[in-house]
Each structure stands twice: as C-alpha cells, then as structure tokens.
UniProtKB/TrEMBL annotation:
It comes from Metallumcola ferriviriculae. Gene3D superfamilies: P-loop containing nucleotide triphosphate hydrolases. Keywords: ATP-binding, Nucleotide-binding, Transport. This is ABC transporter ATP-binding protein. GO terms for molecular function: ATP binding; ATP hydrolysis activity; L-isoleucine transmembrane transporter activity; L-phenylalanine transmembrane transporter activity; L-valine transmembrane transporter activity.
C-alpha cells in the first residue's frame, strides 16, 4: 500500500469526527471517500495532510510513519491536496498561483533570491518549465495571464488541482473537486482526474456526485458519523444495505 491509515481517530471537544478509520490506498488507483455531510471526510484529509493532528491512530506513506508531521513536510514527501472551497489567490494571475504551488519543490532561501545565485536561477527555470507543463495539462494554457477572479468556477477548480500538481505529488487528495459546479461541467473534471491517474499519480477524492463516482473510481470507502461503514467496488457499494440506510435513513 502506498498510503495506509490505521485506527485514525479525531475528537473535537465532545465530538468524534473520525473513529478508528482504517483503509489503504494502492499505488495508481482512484479511491473515493463518500458519506453524508458531517461524516468526517474533510477531517480525514486534514489528518492525512498534516493540517490537524489525530487524537490517536497512524498514517503511513510507503511504510514510513508520517503521523503528526507538519503539513509542509507531508507536502514535500509527496501528498498534495485541494480544499472544499478554493484557496486560490484571486487577485493574482493563473501563472502566479501555479508558481506559488511549486514553492514546495524549491530550496532557495532569502540569500539565494537576493543574490540570484545559480541555485535560484536553476530553480526559477524549473518552476517556469513545470508551470508551462501543468498549464497545458489542466487545459488553461490560453488563460495563463488571466486574473483568477475572471475565470469561471469550473476553470478555477481545474486551477486548484493544477496548484496541487505542480508540486509533483505521488498522491493527490481532492476535496469535492466538483462542488459548486453544475452537472454538465463535471466532465472536464472527470477527464482531468483520469489523466492524473494515467500519469501515475494516485488519487483519493471526496465526492458527492454519485454518477461521477461510479464512472470514475476503482474503490469506495464510506464514512458515516466518523466511522467507516463500508468499503468496496462501486458496484458492491451501490448494493450495500448499510450504505443505502446511511443515505436514505437516519
Ligand atoms: P464532512 O467533510 O464529511 O462533511 P467534516 O470532516 O468537515 O465533515 O466534519 C465532521 C464533523 O467534525 C462535523 O460535525 C464538523 O462540524 C466537525 N468539525 C470539523 N472540523 C472541526 C473543527 N476544526 N473544530 C470543531 N469541529 C469540527
Ligand atoms: Mg467536507
């Protein structure tokens, strides 16, 4: 397993947001985390990416314990993420947002930047090449110099994914990549996720649009009230009585 989650638990005051959650992420697969609102899906991403520390439990990346490491350290180790609501710099251009995303990959410090050392110059060229590469990949080459605030919602979503991709991750965590987008526009996001998989990047996504999930993913983990209630292929999950109950009952 590329990523392994063991008995992950997170308490907020009296609330149990994640309760002994366990699953693995195999290299090259697309896994969806689904579940009703408040089930603990985003919290799980926060624990994996180091935005929050678990109350108990472990996260392993390629067998190494990464539990509780700082978020920038986890990003450097190859786990990138997007957020449920986009965190782009609206007042900046598309290229600037991507260049900022590449910071994870560079080592230049204050002196390198001030004196334009060879390291700084080499890294600047690397950033430019990578930004061009990602612009093309996410289909925003012709919007490179547009201000983010002028882009349609769906293009902003693709850009957020691009910002995660410029750090050249092994794993990308996508928190509701189609939230706020109408059904007709989700195809562009679906296509992009398939392309990410084809590039060899492992994908874990939180998604509510079930038709999209069924077409896209290899495996599904279902959370309800912080606990995993089911895990399986899209077909197994759609026939699982516990899952149907979680969505329709309660
Ligand atoms: P989901 O993404 O599945 O909708 P979340 O992980 O965002 O669910 O939230 C799970 C539960 O944890 C919710 O009841 C939410 O209110 C609570 N929660 C999430 N983050 C925090 C926080 N930082 N502090 C307190 N409670 C939180
Ligand atoms: Mg959420």
């Amino acid at each position: 397993m590329l990523l392994k989650i063991e008995k992950l638990t997170k308490h907020f005051e009296g609330l149990v947001a994640n309760n002994n959650v366990e699953f693995g992420l195999a290299r090259g697969e697309i896994l969806a985390i689904i579940g009703p609102n408040g089930a603990g899906k985003s919290t799980l991403f926060n624990l994996i990416s180091g935005m929050l520390r678990p109350t108990s439990g472990k996260v392993y990346l390629e067998g190494a314990d990464i539990t509780g490491l700082k978020s920038h350290t986890i990003a450097e180790k190859g786990i990138a993420r997007t957020f449920q609501t986009t965190t782009l710099f609206d007042e900046l251009r598309v290229v600037d947002n991507l260049a900022i995303g590449h910071k994870v990959r560079t080592k230049s410090g204050f002196w390198d930047t001030l004196f334009h050392t060879s390291r700084y110059q080499r890294e600047r060229e690397e950033t430019q090449a990578k930004v061009m590469d990602v612009l093309e990949f996410i289909g925003l080459k012709h919007n490179a110099f547009d201000f983010v605030s002028t882009l349609p919602q769906e293009a902003q979503k693709r850009l957020s994914i691009g910002v995660a991709l410029v750090s050249e991750p092994k794993i990308i965590l996508l928190d509701e990549p189609t939230a706020g987008i109408i059904q007709d526009e989700t195809d562009a996001i679906t296509d992009l996720i398939f392309k990410i998989k084809a590039k060899g990047i492992t994908v874990c996504l939180i998604e509510h649009k079930m038709r999209m999930v069924m077409d896209l993913v290899d495996r599904i983990v279902v959370l309800n009230y912080g606990s995993k209630i089911a895990e399986g292929t899209p077909e197994e999950i759609s026939n699982n009585p516990k899952v149907i109950e979680a969505y329709l009952g309660g």
